[in-house]
């Protein structure tokens, strides 16, 4: 069984967190609001294996201190907006020298499809870096953004299959995006 560190695990990744918890993994979820975190724990099959950390990744010094107290996870799932790129870089630096290799799933919006807008943090050999790009759905020529259910299922699938890059939905043709 693995230890998943999910930043941010409330919101669209809640079903992914609950799936990993149900599968027997230990999951540590980071988000800002305690009520949302507690509500997530109340929905878990194994609440004792779902740990919460109330933290704001934009308050970097406090975030670093809080996360530095955690034991090293086996898997990091990061849904951190571009404004929090410093937090992503800190995570990669913090786990630079780790006894075991850590799988890092960097969830990104559809704009990451464009290499000029894709932020890939420098990382060491102790990290196995995977990117998960959230695309869109195209049905009979009509496009729409992904639902939370589709996003969570896609991220769970990516964490099982572990490809270097995984697209939830599609990013092609780009001019058909909603
Ligand atoms: N390609 C696509 O189709 C696509 C891509 C992205 C999003 N979406 C959709 O858009 C919706 C909204 O997206 P979203 O980006 O708001 O994601 P979200 O995962 O639905 O919500 C963001 C979560 O992040 C937490 N959060 C926000 N800022 C934080 C911070 N600085 N530090 C720690 N936690 C923080 C919030 O909880 P707290 O307030 O408790 O911190 C909230 O639970 C999603 O539900 C999804 O369905 C679609």
What does this structure look like?
With 178 residues, the protein is α/β, with parallel strands linked by helices. The chain has a single domain (3-176), classed as Rossmann fold. The chain is built from five helices and nine strands, in the order E-H-E-H-E-H-E-H-E-E-E-E-H-E. It has helices spanning 14-22, 34-43, 60-68, 85-94, 148-161; strands at 3-7, 26-31, 50-54, 75-78, 102-108, 127-134, 136-139, 142-145, 165-168. Strands 3-2-1-4-5-6-9 form a seven-stranded parallel β-sheet. It has a two-stranded antiparallel ribbon with strand order 7-8. Strand 2 (26-31), helix 2 (34-43) and strand 3 (50-54) form a beta-alpha-beta unit. Helix 1 (14-22) packs across helix 5 and helix 3 packs parallel to helix 4. The longest helix has 14 residues, at 148-161. The relative contact order is 0.15. The mean pLDDT is 96. It binds NADP nicotinamide-adenine-dinucleotide phosphate. Residues 8, 10-13, 31-33, 36, 56-58, 79, 109-110, 134-136, 145-146, 148, 151 line the site of NADP nicotinamide-adenine-dinucleotide phosphate.
């Amino acid at each position: 069984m693995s230890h998943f560190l999910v930043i941010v695990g409330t919101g669209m990744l809640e079903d992914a967190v609950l799936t990993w918890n149900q599968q027997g993994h230990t999951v540590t979820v980071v988000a800002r609001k305690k009520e949302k975190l507690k509500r997530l724990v109340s929905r878990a099959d194994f609440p004792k294996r779902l740990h919460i950390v109330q933290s704001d990744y934009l308050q970097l010094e406090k975030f670093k201190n809080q996360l530095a107290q955690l034991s090293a996870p086996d898997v990091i799932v990061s849904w951190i907006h571009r404004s929090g790129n410093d937090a992503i870089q800190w995570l990669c630096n913090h786990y630079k020298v780790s006894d075991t290799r850590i799988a890092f799933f960097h969830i990104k919006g559809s704009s990451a499809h464009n290499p000029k807008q894709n932020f890939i943090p420098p990382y060491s050999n102790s990290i196995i870096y995977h990117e998960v790009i959230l695309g869109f759905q195209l049905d009979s020529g009509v496009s729409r953004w992904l639902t939370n259910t589709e996003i969570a299922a896609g991220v769970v699938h990516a964490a099982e299959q572990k490809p270097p890059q995984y697209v939830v939905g599609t990013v092609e043709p780009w001019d058909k995006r909603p």
